[in-house]
Amino acid sequence: MIRPIEMQMIIPQANIVGIEQHHANQHAAVQSANQTLQHEKDVEHNKEVVLEQENATQSKNEQDARDKGNNEYDDIYLQKWLKRKKREEEENRQKGGDSTRVNFNVKI
Hints:
By secondary structure, the protein is mainly α. Helices cover 61% and strands 5% of the residues. The protein has helices at 4-48, 75-95; strands at residues 67-69, 72-73. It has a two-stranded antiparallel sheet with strand order 1-2. The longest helix has 45 residues, at 4-48.
């Protein structure tokens, strides 16, 4: 049985406990909203800033796959290029076209 003096102490504390419970329940929702806002800020910031890659594939000293290095091409690629150029010149001669004609392939 609850005595009258205990009742006078419990009722005001019930209001405080209710407020604390409400704050505990709202804590997760507030954290989620804050994370969402932070993510949106990061996205907006990253739109305007050029991001540097952590591991760049080419450094200053690395050669391209077709390069031998020091401005010299690998013989395999040079031979392929010479054969293709010779074949294009022969095709142009057969067509009666100009041998200085240049073709461009543009992809958009």
